[in-house]
């Protein structure tokens, strides 16, 4: 009997065609980049979004070592966005205003 970790569920073909990762290999490459080069990884993703104001400080700053002071994570210091614009307006402006945005 297979353990849950051994089960593989492939997506429907219509979903796979429009996915961000076309293969497990591509997923693993992205995952490795996210660990080894987090600023580059998240910077690439951030390019897909609208920002009212750009980053003015460090893109990523963190401390996970309590012996070095306060534990913290800071992302994109100084940047400001409008989440409604990124979630809705950008799609309306792209001509998709008459399509369902979210199924409940």
Automatic annotation (TrEMBL):
Domain spans labelled Acetyl-coenzyme A synthetase N-terminal: 27-87
GO terms classed as biological process: acetyl-CoA biosynthetic process
InterPro entries: ACAS_N, ANL_N_sf
GO MF terms, alphabetically ordered: acetate-CoA ligase activity
Pfam families documented for this protein: ACAS_N
Protein name, as recorded: Acetyl-coenzyme A synthetase N-terminal domain-containing protein
Species of origin: Cherax quadricarinatus (Australian red claw crayfish)
């Amino acid at each position: 009997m297979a353990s849950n970790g051994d089960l593989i569920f492939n997506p429907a073909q219509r979903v796979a065609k429009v996915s961000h990762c076309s293969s497990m290999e591509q997923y693993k490459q992205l995952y490795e980049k996210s660990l080894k080069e987090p600023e580059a990884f998240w910077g690439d993703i951030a390019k897909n979004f609208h920002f009212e104001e750009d980053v003015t400080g460090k893109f990523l700053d963190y401390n996970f070592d309590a012996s070095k002071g306060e534990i913290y994570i800071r992302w994109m210091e100084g940047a400001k966005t409008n989440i409604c614009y990124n979630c809705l307006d950008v799609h309306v402006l792209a001509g998709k205003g008459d399509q369902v945005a979210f199924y409940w």
